[in-house]
Specification:
By secondary structure, this protein is an alpha/beta fold. It folds into two domains: 97 residues, no CATH class; 154 residues, Rossmann fold (3-Layer(aba) Sandwich). 57% of the residues lie in helices and 13% in strands. A six-stranded mixed β-sheet has the order 5-6-4-3-7-8.
């Protein structure tokens, strides 16, 4: 039993209410995590990440640089979700001899950009950071301290290339093993793979409104019971025998709608019909 104001509610009803509210809060929490992942923009220092991934060489033969870039792009592609790829920009230095003819192209939803010959990728990324309309939703991927400083100035997020490579590889491995849903954690609980489908079903539910409705309903039941129960003269404690007290408690429990799980289930069904 637990007290809600002055109302005593049975443990079984408490479990139904608290588990329902807890579940809906968890749904909202999972939704926030998925939305957080989807809403961040990534700007990646291409060659810096290539070195961190072990794809760079001291010397390149004909076509080697292009093949290394393609391997890097494939690594990024398989390490991000489709939604994240649509918000990812990869910047390479454009002064190399094997710079592609096109300075900008799409790769599986990601924007690949080469700096002009007279500018470095870091210059372009700094401009990208300074001009971003919502820098708090920007993640800068580079081990260059210059870019980390530029990110901090605008309160963007910065992550070292080595750490980002580990995240990409881990996510790609989990996708292959089918364990991505199990390893995505929030407060020790996994985010279900079909969470987005749940959000379409429950996304418009207001947790605070539910809690308020439960409180109002409990008060209504308490008031109704109080009005229906006639006042009885109190018997002095010295005159009441132990069997009489036990019998009184038993009768009270049987007639108390607050202790009747069927009553609460019917009320929940009524509220559902009213909501429809």
């Amino acid at each position: 039993m637990f007290l809600c104001g002055r109302l005593v509610v049975p443990d079984r009803v408490k479990c139904v209410i608290l588990r329902s509210v807890s579940f809906l809060r968890w749904i909202k929490q999972a939704q926030a995590i998925v939305e957080d992942r989807m809403r961040f923009d990534f700007v990646i220092d291409g060659y810096n990440l290539m070195h961190a991934a072990g794809l760079a060489r001291q010397r390149y033969g004909p076509g080697d640089m292009e093949r290394a870039r393609q391997r890097l792009l494939q690594l990024i592609r398989h390490g991000l979700t489709p939604e994240q790829r649509l918000r990812t920009t990869i910047v390479f230095d454009g002064h190399s001899s094997d710079r592609p003819v096109s300075a900008e192209f799409q790769f599986h939803g990601m924007l690949v950009f080469f700096s002009p010959p007279n500018r470095e990728a870091d210059d372009e990324i700094e401009d990208f950071i300074s001009e971003h309309s919502a820098p708090k939703q920007l993640i800068v991927v580079s081990s260059d301290h210059r870019l980390h400083k530029a990110a901090r100035v605008r309160r963007a997020h910065a992550i070292d290339s080595e750490e980002f490579v580990e995240q990409l590889q881990r996510f790609a491995r989990e996708q292959r093993d089918g364990t991505a849903a199990e390893s995505s954690k929030t407060d020790g609980r996994a985010v279900p793979e079909n969470a987005e489908e749940w959000f379409q079903e429950f996304g418009d539910i207001d947790i605070n409104e539910i809690e308020s409705d439960v409180q109002r309903e409990m008060k209504r039941v308490e008031k109704t019971q109080r009005e229906k129960t006639p006042a009885t003269p109190k018997t002095p404690a010295s005159e009441a025998s132990a069997p009489d007290i036990e019998e009184e408690k038993s009768d009270s429990n049987e007639n108390d709608p607050e202790l009747d799980v069927d009553f609460w289930e019917n009320r929940i069904a009524e509220l559902d019909q009213e909501g429809e």
